[in-house]
Design goal:
This protein is of the alpha/beta class. Helix content is about 40%, strand content about 15%.
């Protein structure tokens, strides 16, 4: 005799900074849930939507054409009220009013801290990591990272064309307030002269000025410096280059353009797998967990334990970057 599915209706929300692949994850959750006989309710504007009862029914048709779309059809917003006990009580009341047996929360570390607080009040929550910074400690990969990298690389490749024509130094700032994953991956992909990341203390003369000098002695006339926003101001770095070696760098801050655009195949495929895993974990009686990637496999980890985990930037990639520069590859 088949075991009765105790999950009848779930809420789905996206929170924090938007990331390509969020819509694909929403689609995967809805399609998988419907296949399991579960109703879906979209919570708009993240945790704020639960506080203020901002919701919309979701069915197979409503997610039919969102797989390739960037951003999030459920919108996203920060919620100051949710940070208060009164706000969280309102969120729980909304869950009860809607008859939600669980909530699937798609976002980053801040989203999961909200999920943990809600779980303490009796709401079953499953998280799906989605942030372009790839800085969720419990998961090797987060939705949106590959898409953001590709967007940044495409922009820098175009920038390089004009900068080489004018024999100039480029200083490009990419996102990454606390983590240098995006900067390091992009820097390797575009053959940057130097990459500055928050995880590594910068020796400006050695890491920037001397790199430019060596590159010039090798015959190069264009120099690309990639900076994670948490490693310093691109404008200040450009000014310092000008002051120390007389170059006139051009500074480009890619900003929120990195968040937009259609998700890559990797992010779409991963979103499908994560969405499916989130729903099936609920069907199988598991909850209050985060879907994580670990050595290429999907696993679930209890929220509190997952939030305690730390992830370290793979510095072997920085060694590769140095080798590429030394050999002028």
């Amino acid at each position: 005799m088949e075991k009765e599915n105790k999950i009848k209706r779930i809420g789905i929300l996206t929170s924090g900074g938007d990331a390509p692949g969020m819509n694909a994850a929403v689609r995967a959750v809805v399609r998988t849930a419907i296949g399991q006989g579960i109703e879906c309710v979209g919570i708009r504007r993240g945790w704020n939507g639960l506080v203020f009862s901002d919701f919309v029914p979701l069915d197979s048709e409503s997610v039919s054409h969102i797989l390739a779309a960037g951003g999030t059809i459920l919108y996203t917003a920060r919620s100051e009220e949710f940070l208060t006990p009164e706000g969280r009580d309102k969120a729980v009341a909304t869950c009860k009013m809607l008859g939600l047996d669980a909530v699937v929360a798609i976002g980053g570390d801040g989203t999961f801290r909200g999920a943990l607080e809600l779980s303490k009040l009796g709401v079953n929550v499953v998280g799906i990591p989605a942030t372009i910074d790839n800085d969720v400690g419990c998961s090797h990969y987060t939705l949106g990272f590959d898409s953001a990298c590709n967007t940044a690389v495409e922009c820098i490749d175009k920038l390089r064309d004009t900068m080489q024509s004018h024999e100039r130094c480029s200083v490009v700032e990419v996102m990454g307030r606390h983590a240098g994953y995006l900067a390091l991956y992009v820097g390797l992909s575009v053959g940057a002269t130097a990459v500055l990341i928050p995880e590594r203390k910068v020796d400006f003369d050695k890491d920037v000025i001397e790199r430019i000098r060596q590159s010039r002695m090798m015959g190069n006339t264009h120099f690309m410096i990639v900076v994670a926003e948490g490693a310093g101001s691109a404008h200040e770095i450009g000014q310092r280059i000008h002051d120390e070696i007389g170059m006139d760098p051009r500074v480009t801050i890619l900003g929120h353009i990195q968040r937009g655009g259609s998700p890559t195949a990797r992010d779409r495929e991963m979103a499908a797998r994560m969405g499916y895993k989130a729903v099936m974990s609920l069907v199988q009686g598991e909850g209050n967990c985060i879907v994580c990637t670990h050595d290429g496999h999907l696993v679930t980890k209890p929220i509190e334990k997952a939030l305690a985990e730390k992830k370290h930037l793979p510095m072997d990639r920085y060694e590769v970057l140095e080798a590429m520069h030394a050999k002028n590859v």
